[in-house]
Amino acid sequence: MNSLDKKVLQEQHSRCSLTVTIVVLLISLAALPSALAQGISSARSVAMGSAAISLAKGVDAARYNPANLGFGEFRVRGVEVAGVGADISNNSFTLGDYNKYTGAFLTDEDKEDILDKISPDGLKVDADAEASALSVSLGSFVFGVTGHGVADINLNRDLVELVLDGNTFGDTVEITGCYSEAVAYAAGYLSFGRSIYRMGSRELSVGFTAKYLRGFAVEQVVELEGLAATFATGFTGEGCLVARTATGGTGYALDLGAALKLNDHYLVGARVRNVLSSITWNNDTEEHGFIFSFDTMTVDNMDDDYIVTDDYTVEIDDFKTSLPSLLNVGVANTSGNLLWAIDWEQGLERAAGVSSKPRLSMGVEWWPIGILPLRGGYSVGGNRNAAFSFGSGFHVSYFYLDYAMVTGMTFPGYSSKGLNLAVTTGFYF
């Protein structure tokens, strides 16, 4: 074998070895527990861009601002039989991109277009879901049970480029900036709101939602680093992935809210979600790790078990996690056949389902006839894509059924970077 053949073989083997190694890391990173985030099962609020802090009443007030339950016109006697919402999204690719590139032969121009769509921060994928059953609203009180789940994954742009192009001579691939986190839990909750001040049409109310949490699963990547490079002298690289998991735990959470009715038409409100929270994970608590290293691997030593790898799973002590805190402030027109609301959302930390970047939402609700509400909304900012939303429903006698979807920046939905749907049904009495 001449030197040129060795160099070609070395480059091909380097490409293959690096790809396989990083794919193993990607599989480990994406191995999230499947799960059933708060409020996305309310079809009314989803249709209005999630602008609900100053409009939510009844069961929705428990989700968004329990202080609203202190106002007589926001109290509802009824049962929400079921509410289901799901939001799966990414920060880079639309439905149109998916239809264009899935199953197609990718040219160099296609690959360049795909990479250009990915943020310098990486490819981010979010999956949120919420399901509620038999939530009961009785005046100033609301109680019920909900299931929640959220998962966040962020992949370094280098990794996506590696999947598309493989590594070439002189490449250095890093996994810095990757992370993943997922949690699934059920919550039994009690909400209460009370008016504490009134002068004429002006009224101030405060409220809380106290939650008992039953954790189902959690996964947190606590350490993730590594790189691999191809040089003239050989192929070098090292890295590690460490994650902790559990399949059971218990805890608590508390939301606090306040609302001020300015007059008979306008209301402003604020809510801090999870101002206090903790889950102690004590079932099947484990740490999982994958470590690899190699130094100056060449065509001459590639058959000598030159790549050193180690993966392990060990039991660990019980550990605690908390739910991310979130601040919402909103204003709304609450009277007439045409209602509107504007909300500002600010995560107080970066965690699964929450961004430290602010998000602005606005929505309208019009009742052209008594049984058929028409709703629309727009939201932008945070860690979510800018998007329009819409929805409607049927409110006949004591029964109601609401539905909503988010379409992206165009009505047909081809600009949508994910799937967001919600359905809610129940009875008034």
CATH class group? Mainly Beta
Largest sheet report: 14 strands, antiparallel, barrel
Kindly state the number of beta strands: 19
Distance between the termini: 86 Å
- Uncertain runs are 1-37
**CATH fold-level label:** Porin
- The sequence of SSEs as H and E is HHHEHHEEHEEEEEEEEEEEEEEEE
Helix content: 10-25%
Instruction: Please state how the strands of the largest beta sheet are arranged side by side.
Output: 1-2-3-5-6-8-9-13-14-15-16-17-18-19
How many domain units? Answer: 1
Global shape: globular
Output the structural class. Answer: alpha+beta
From the alpha-carbon coordinates, what is the Rg to the nearest angstrom?
Answer: 25 Å
Number of helices: 6
Supply the CATH architecture.
Beta Barrel
Give the mean pLDDT. 82
Percent of sequence in beta strands: over 45%
